[in-house]
Amino acid sequence: MPSGEILSQSEIDALLSALSTGEVNAEEIKKEEEEKKIRTYDFKRALRFSKEQIRSLTRIHDNLARLLTTHFSAKLRTYVHVEVASADQIPYEEFVRSIPKMTVLYLYEVPPLEGRLLIEINPNIAYAMLDRILGGMGTSINKIDQLTDIETKIMTNLFEVAFEQLQEAWETVTHINPVLQSFEVNPQFLQMVSPNETVVVISLNTVIGETSGMINICIPHIVLEPIISKLSVSYWMQTEKKQAEPEKLLALKRHLKHTQLPVIAELGQSEITIEEFLNLTEGDCIELNRKIDQPIIIKVEGKPKFLAQPGKINNKLAVQILEELKEGDENDE
Prior knowledge:
Elements: H1 9-21, H2 26-34, H3 51-76, E1 80-91, H4 92-98, E2 104-109, E3 116-121, H5 123-133, H6 149-162, H7 165-169, E4 179-184, E5 198-208, E6 211-220, H8 221-224, H9 233-243, H10 246-257, E7 263-266, H11 274-278, E8 296-300, E9 303-313, E10 316-324
Antiparallel strand pairs: 1-5, 2-3, 2-4, 3-6, 5-6, 7-8, 8-9, 9-10
């Protein structure tokens, strides 16, 4: 057993039982401990991101999944659900082997960051969305090698607008400006990094109606390298602490104080029939539901906030505040 390895309670019980029955010799265990242990390391699968950084990337794309769910649901007018299924770091070559030979691929630049990221959309999902855009029920037919120019254009427009959500999802870490660079169907033609380069692959499980599939976002190490320090818990904690600084709260209050609100002095209300309305002519009077000696209601953003009396200031109509209305008081008038 390698030093530092943590055993479960059941493994500890089994080991003690084996020692007590003589199946395992304590001297043999001690001798094994003293022997030099060599752990194999695959340089092709170099782990360049910590678990903490992978969790931060997962958190960012959880936010992206919620944004995509809202966007696609509104755009396609049907049930759509997107959620993060997994986040792994693997060699780029392994990622290419894991996706279909013919699929929907979009290559994005994300300035000011260097490098490019790749978004792979399973054909089942892509065609279901295309069918829905064209007025269908959202059924999927995989004919990726027979895409027409019109279908390609419609599909590209749909996903180009959708993945503008990347900007908002990444805003908590850094500002990016996603720009669609190219569209491809064969991953073998997209050698954006060397085969052994470490990439982070975020897999989004996507459901549209009765069709499901994966959207994979492949992010090379070169893209994340300038912001790697921002993917730590300490950065997130510092960000939250900075947001709570009194100076920023005071600045927010100053901006709120200068926000303009619509204010309406309502003299009263009345109900008339459609026939009476159609017969109204110049000089007709409409009786309101408020007496002339009653205070009028001042509404802010459409909600009753004050009672006031009408008057004049410098030959202009004005109202004088009499009292503030508490929530629910307007129903008693």
